[in-house]
Amino acid sequence: MVKAVVLRQHGSIGALRVETDWQPKPPGAEDVLLRVRACSLNYHDIFTIRGMPGIKLDLPVVPGNDVAGEILELGTAVEGWHPGDRVLLNPVYPGRGLMGEMLDGGLAEVCRAHHSQLIRIPAAVTFAQAAALPVAYGTAHRMMMTKGRIAAGERVLILGASGGVGTCCVMLAKQQGCEVVACARGAEKAAQLKALGADHVIDYGEVDFMKEVWRRFGKPDRRVEKGGVDVVVNYTGGDTWIPSLRVLKKGGRLLCCGATAGFDPKEDLRFLWTYELELIGSNGWKPADLQALLAMVESGRMAPPIDREYSLDDGVVALQALEDRAFFGKIIVAPNS
Predict the structure, then answer these.
(1) What dihedral do alpha carbons 101, 127, 12, 138 form, nearest 10°?
(2) pLDDT digits over 232-252, tens only?
(3) Domain count within the chain
């Protein structure tokens, strides 16, 4: 029996309970049992708690997609790994789905994983830094580097820049030599984004970000290809969609990896064809993205900002902070700190 945050029915965060007698599923021949040292939270955890249309989960389940820890036990068919090895999990269990959704995740003292999910953590990388990477940073890396093709000299506008995906997008764009325009709410987050490397910050709780982009950089003009930005990162959808199209210069690219504020925004196709825009979708990550990110952290080229570490006893409080967006960067729960 172990301690875990358990979801037994969909609803609000109030439906979660910290249970001390949770029985983890035993590892199969190709599995390992992991002592969880760090689990980072993602907004996907909130969707799991609420319940997502068309996705049926076998409840109860332990949330938490991103997991780092030490191997406790090895299945009989697992080779090349040893108890005590420090590992990060690729959150996708082969043939089953996402940890913390289709299988028990990292908000527990131990969890089970398939051996193919294991990625060795370099000695210079902490458990918290490693756990910060998979869902948010892996998604950002694939969207920005593989699909989005961001390049030096481009002006990149990032909506929701203070969250996990957003902060990684800021850091990746700066590493590529881009001019970064970060959007967030509040003076404190604006200052944190400046410290992270953003060249410009727009508080879209105070101003209309579309009009502010026009004021600072000029309104896009398809005849002379001036004004606006080269790239917009928009994973919110909703009311920000059309303004995002309207700040792109001719030939600009809109990158999308989610729709946290609404998946069916109003569209205006005139901007798409008039300005020859590209709409580029990106879904998830590949193991190579996670390897590349670990190497960046190991070398000191990237330091994931971590807002706060919570104990497992405060795991429900941590999820509430996530839902309230009362954080900057990543929220970590450390079950075995």
Answers:
(1) -60
(2) 999 988 899 999 999 999 999
(3) 2
Domain assignment of residue 36, yes or no? yes
pLDDT band at 53 (very low <50, low <70, confident <90, very high): confident
Supply the range of the domain harboring residue 11.
Answer: 2-132+304-334
d(CA 80, CA 203): 49
CA distances to 20, 57, 96, 113, 302 from 23, rounded to whole Å, are 9, 18, 20, 15, 37
Is residue 9 located within the same domain as residue 109? yes
Measure the CA–CA gap between 142 and 267, rounded to whole angstroms: 25
